[in-house]
Amino acid sequence: MKKITEWIKENNEMTLTIISGLMIIIGFILNTQNSGLAIPLFILAFILGGYYSFLNAYHDLVDEKKLNVDVLMIAAAVGASIIGYWAEGALLIFIFSLAESLEAMSLAKTSEAITELMKVTPNTARKYTEEGTILEVETTELKVGDRLQVRKGEAIPIDGILENTAAVVNEAAITGEPLAVTKYQGDEVIGGTINEEAAFDMVVTVEDQNTLFSKIIRMVEEAQDSPSKTDSKIQQIEDTYVKIVLLFVPLFILLMPLVFHWTFEESFYRGMVLLTVASPCALVASVAPANLSAISRSARNGILFKGGEVMERTTDVKAVVFDKTGTLTKGQPEVVESFYHKDEDKELIDQLVISAETSSTHPIATAFLKAYPEVTPLAIDELEDITGKGFEFKYEGATWRIGNRSFALNEDRKSAILEAENERILQNESQGKTVIFVSKEGQFQAFYALADQLKPDAKHTIQLLHDLDVQTVMLTGDEARTAHYIAEEIGIDDVRSNLLPQDKASIIKELQETYGSIAMVGDGINDAPALATSNVGFALGSGTDVAMETADIVLIQDDLEQIPFSLAISKQTRRLVMQNIIFSISVIVLLIISNLLQTINLPLGVIGHEGSTILVILNSLRLLRYRK
Question: Which pTM does this prediction carry?
């Protein structure tokens, strides 16, 4: 019973429609028995079923100063009742109300993306008071600087900084990755992610309205309120179209007795049928439900379109431009190969390298520490970090160097590197890898090759784009050799290298002249001008706020394969919209001709017309289940 009550509260319009339908059924039964109660029941069914239609018509007429399809339906139902067709008038309103109710429910279904997002973050948080006690407060009341406790298994209530030494957090809600990640003291923790291990303390760094999830929710809401150009045009046409129909129907009623020799009653009845079948209900519903369904489906997939107009522009994209670092690649160097002049020295050299790199915060040092977490450092002497070159230190009286070739190796002792070793080094350098040398007293001991690794999904993403007949371009500040090697590795069509940040926007303009509509994918502040210049800008969710604000589409989960998904669903949306428009116009024309030929009556006209509206809505809702 409780579920029924909740459903009625959430679906008032459909509830009145159902009651209206039941009254019509009872009215038909009483009518067969010549009961005087039939007509009052039809009138009551008319009032209940048409309640929301009347409110919509009144709101648009009084507040917006425009006419809508509700006016046509009410006028047709009232007209039918005037000439004694009470049952037909009530049935017309019922079927129209049913179509409107189904559309309202379908639009509510497309808002589930927001509802699900809002459930992710908790409404309350455990806040430390000045006395050190814990008080449960509303999340909306939290301020920057507040200290919170997050217990095991709880969702983090708001964005902040970790105070404990370490914590294990499941970020699947943000990244889509099922494996938990370890956060260390000072790292950012995001509201809505889950604490999987021991309780930890954190400090709030943003107001509730500025959290990542709040931004996502705002983006989805704004997208659903932002109509496409096609939808806007149809909405503009609706007012004019309704006025034309309202002016034409009286002329139709007056002229038809003269043209077809109908009786006035038949002409009036046919006028009411015309009011019904000429209504652009299906046409009006051709675009918005499709766009909203596609936006909601995309949001559930971690893709935030900033409106229906963006989706329309995405349909026309002919080429996708990628920034390399942090977009196609992980954005951090990794040790991908190591080589030792003497294999027996491997353990010692690894220990010495880690001993030196531990003192640095350089990305290369971070790569070494990540690659060799189990290696134990040794005690070294006179360590010197020489900026732009590397490290020099003493170990057991010998001088060791770690760094680039010119710094680490004694130029007079190049022969210490064997020809086969040198070929291996050159091969790594030709692939754009950074080679770090290790020497002892100027003699070559080992080398490590580091590279900014491609993201696992980069190659498949490029293939999917090619399957959609979309060209791919890569922009990078790297030298040409490195850029071309990466492009060949993943199948990029066009490469622009040695670029400065300010060059990217001008390159986008040049590519627009070549390809037409261009999409740009980026993640950093330096990508913002290019994102703004492109026809459609994609920003990665892990990128900067500037990139996310500038872009038209945000990929929350940093999944590159969502780019071809975005292009594909936008194309499918356009196809469905065109299907809906052609179908709805065809039905209107067919029903108008049938009315002139007197082959349909009012109930059939209503069923045909409103049935087309329901079919258009159901066709649009297919996008909620769209697959790659």
Answer: 0.71
